[in-house]
Amino acid sequence: MDTWLSYRLADLLMFSPSTYARLIERVNEALWPGHWLIGGLILAMLALAIWPRQAAHRLAALLLAAAWGWVAWWFFGLYAEINLAAPGFAGLFAVQAVGLLLLAWPGPGLAFARPARPRHWLGLGLLVWGLLLHPLAWLMADRPLAGAELVAVTPDPTAIATIGLLLAACLPGDDRWPLRALLLALPLAWLAISALTWWTLLGA
After folding, report:
1. Chain segment 75-98, per-residue pLDDT in tens
2. Helices then strands (H, E): number in the chain?
3. Is 94 within the bounds of a domain?
4. What pTM was computed for the model?
5. For the chain: N or C, fewer Cβ within 10 A?
6. For residue range 171-201, what is the model confidence (pLDDT) as tens digits?
7. Closest to 124 (Cα-Cα) out of 59, 175, 168, 66
8. Sign of the C-alpha dihedral, residues 166, 168, 170, 173?
9. Residue 65 within a domain
């Protein structure tokens, strides 16, 4: 028992910051030039969320579900090479993808609300952070272009942008609709896991 108590969280990590950074580069290099298709689908999702048709809103939610499913399969499939917990994280992303499918049908889909309340502005800010500022922040930290973390490619910006989209969205019953809370819980849980991982990596 004394031996187990002597372990720190850092002792349980199986990789270093440089190993993780190299993983992101490998993910992007293997996917290229598929980034153009993913970028086009993201723009389509945003356009559909603005379009005043429920069918478009449902398709927007479907595309967001596809993004979570893709990260679950593509990113965490490679992440499993350096982290034995990756299949569990992939399961978390797969559950979120299923929840977003329920938002697409029988739910109302994903539609931007007019930013009449602080929640909507916060959501739009987080969306911009996930789509643009998060990748730029990593590039400013001296990562190469291939090391940029992107929405629908890596988990952190995908979670941030999804929280932003859900906060900016107009859903039936507004804050009283329970699926919103459930769909926010999993991205928040992932960001907590990611923050704890980075805190441990940088403090090791």
Report:
1. 999 999 999 999 999 999 999 999
2. 10, 0
3. yes
4. 0.90
5. N
6. 654 544 567 788 999 999 999 999 999 888 8
7. 168
8. positive
9. yes
Give the C-alpha distances (Å, rounded to integers) separating 56 from 26, 52, 59, 164.
34, 8, 5, 19
SS3 197: helix
> Measured between alpha carbons, how far is 182 from 96 in angstroms, rounded to an integer?
9
Give the count of domains, the chain. Answer: 1
- In whole angstroms, what is the distance from residue 165 CA to residue 34 CA? 23
Per the domain annotation, does 46 fall within a domain?
yes
Cis peptide leading into residue 106 (ω within 30°): yes
Separation of alpha carbons 104 and 111, rounded Å: 11
DSSP 155-184: HHHHHHHHHHHHHHB--TTGGG-HHHHHHH
Q: Which amino acid is at 194?
A: S
Amino acid letter at 3? T
Inter-residue contact 2 to 193 (CB < 8 Å): no
Sign of torsion over alpha carbons 161, 167, 172, 178: positive
Give the tokens for residue 65: 């579900």
Domain boundaries, position 53: 16-203
What type of residue is 122? Answer: L
> Are residues 27 and 74 in contact, defined by beta-carbon separation less than 8 angstroms?
yes
Which helix (H) or strand (E) segment holds residue 102: the answer is helix 86-104
Cα separation, 10 vs 18, in Å, equals 15
Residue 6 resides in a domain: no
